[in-house]
Amino acid sequence: MHDDASPCSGCAGRRDFLKTSLQRVAAIAALSAVGPVHAIAALAPRGANGSVRYALPAADGVSIDSGNEVILCRSNGEVYAFALSCPHQNTALKAMPKNAGFQCTRHKSKYLPNGTFVSGRATRNMDRLHITRDGAQIIVDPDLPYESDLDPAKWAAAFVKI
Ligand code: FES
Predict the structure, then answer these.
(1) Are 144 and 129 in contact (CB under 8 A)?
(2) pTM of this prediction?
């Protein structure tokens, strides 16, 4: 006979099952909202001139090479390379969901996928790195950043059309 005050063993099993199922649904929903953000590494160690090579991104999305502190972003037929740090106070930037751009994890400055400043405490666009294309590879110089306020022409030209 079942006592109403004591837990029903079958009910506890169903509750656990429902809780686990809801947690799985939430995890999948969270993952699908993140969008295509990949961790990448350079194809080879830095060359004598300090540059690094990456495979040309096959589709729109963001790839982050934390070892060389490079963000590679393909968006609307263009590829950009950015310094990983925010131009305000050098905090690491993160990609926003669905290839919507970037956000600083400290003071929340926001930037478009092409690095243009949108809002927040920063006073310039994300720093673009020197970038060229060699066939199916992208060549980036992590030590050659262009700051949009100091060198607007080079900043504007620092992308690869695909
Ligand atoms: S460090 Fe990024 S907005 Fe301040």
Answers:
(1) yes
(2) 0.77
